[in-house]
Amino acid sequence: MPGCVESGYDPRITESEAEMLDLTGKVAVITGAGSGIGRGIALALAGAGADIVASDLFLARAEETAEMVSDLGPRASARRADVREPESVVALATSAAAEFGRLDICVANAGIVRTGSLLTMAEEDWNEIVAVNQSGVFHTVQACAREMVRAKHGGRIITISSIMAAHPTRGSFGYSTTKAAVVMMSRCWAQELAPFGITVNSIGPGYVESRMGVGAIGPGDAWETYGKSVPAGRTGTPEDIGNLAVWLASDEAGYVTGAYHVIDGGWLDRSWSRDDTLTEDLERRREQFATMNGDELLAALDAEADEGRDGWTALRGMMDLP
Length: 322
Ligand SMILES: NC(=O)c1ccc[n+]([C@@H]2O[C@H](COP(=O)([O-])OP(=O)(O)OC[C@H]3O[C@@H](n4cnc5c(N)ncnc54)[C@H](O)[C@@H]3O)[C@@H](O)[C@H]2O)c1
Known about the structure:
By secondary structure, this protein is α/β, with parallel strands linked by helices. It folds into 2 domains: 15-268, NAD(P)-binding Rossmann-like Domain (Rossmann fold); 278-318. The chain is 51% helix and 11% strand. The protein has helices spanning 15-20, 36-47, 59-72, 86-100, 123-151, 173-193, 211-217, 221-228, 238-249, 267-271, 278-291, 294-306, 312-318, and strands spanning 27-30, 51-56, 76-80, 105-108, 155-160, 198-205, 260-263. Helix 5 links the parallel strand 4 and strand 5 (155-160). The chain starts with 14 loop residues before the first helix and ends with a helix. Nicotinamide-adenine-dinucleotide (NAD) binds next to helix 2, helix 5 and helix 7.
């Protein structure tokens, strides 16, 4: 970067930058915090020092998360809140701010799946998925943002979308559509809230080990096999998503707003490829990486290229070439 060195820019991580990831003294409200990704985010934020208000449709689940947070040290409390009902989430935001004295971080995470194709989807399933995944995020963010604006100390809003926001699905258009809405709502709100020092970002996870994720793919072998089709070689964990949330909530991410952060081990980009042999290719690569030394690995790649079996197979697939 021109001028960097002259201006005394030092890229090494300093102690004060590490401190920027410290969330001590911040208060976070998380919806759907009684399970999977919401719990992972609650624990990760708590691990960085934040006090946590864990809320869920099922109080017992939220209480379990709050107990786990308390074990880590920060203050925690649990609330029942149904994101479909605006007054329920307003009560959540105001009571959290009243109990802990402030509300700095809002994670609109609660979500559900309702499958169904255009020609057969039941009206009640459509209404339900829109009520939770889209209206629920609106209710949550509106209630929390109003608290942040009232307190005038800025804040961080994180919404949980999905890779499906960028990936049309057959038989699940309600999910893809509501998750795409989450991305666009977040971009609009980022514009509106920037003057108040509040950032808004959406996270788009790939398949993550949770009730929902494993429920969709299947447990055991089905889950393991699916993981192998991900370029990173595994499915995601709630901790992976929690780590990203910590960064987005931190001072380090103060200039990041209105963005859709895909976190999927490379799955989304891989999904555009029409090459059905991709999973085999990935497995062969992992095997080569695990068993060969560097020179052998490069020689094997060169040999494959000579035989026309290199990365261009994917492109041939896309172009319908033989
Ligand atoms: N697991 C995945 O593979 C995956 C991938 C991409 C995105 N997501 C998204 O991540 C979020 C969390 O999903 P998860 O995988 O942890 O699922 P999960 O089913 O394990 O947890 C969802 C939690 O939300 C709660 N909830 C449901 N309806 C609610 C409501 N009306 N009000 C308040 N809470 C409610 C549930 O009780 C549950 O505790 C969702 O928005 C989901 O769409 C999940």
